[in-house]
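Batch job 17 of 40 flagged for manual review because the log was empty.
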Amino acid sequence: MAIVLRNEGAKINSNINVTPMVDVMLVLLIIFMVITPMLHPGVPVDLARTSNPMAMPDAGRPDAVILSVMRDGQMFLGSEIVTSESLVRRILDTMVTRADKTVFIRADARARYGLIVGAVDDLRSAGVDQLGLLTEQRSFIASVTREP
């Protein structure tokens, strides 16, 4: 008669299976890559860069009124294109029910000064109390290498 020995420990797999974790991480990466460009409200604008920008956290609210002025002269209220004539009417309609009459302007760094002044004048004639000019922080390297 032979003795049968069992080796139960040989069947145990002590390796960690990381495949499900990698799958979840890749799905999250794809989701964040798709969502991140949508976080900026309105149309893409090359903002002016300043050394000491003022923080405007209210501009990030979902109900914030943002006017974007492009370098070619087009204006967008949110993501809809507006003209100078329709801007006043649209702002009046928007501001009727709001207690906070603040509009944020995202002007392209290469937009003509006259376009921005005209937009500010239109906003003031529509009864806007507060204006915010949105800018970006100038990088340290660009401010150090700037010549006087």
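Reviewer: the log was empty due to a logging misconfiguration, but the result itself is present. The helical segments are 19-35, 84-95, 113-125, 140-145. Unflagging and moving on to job 18.
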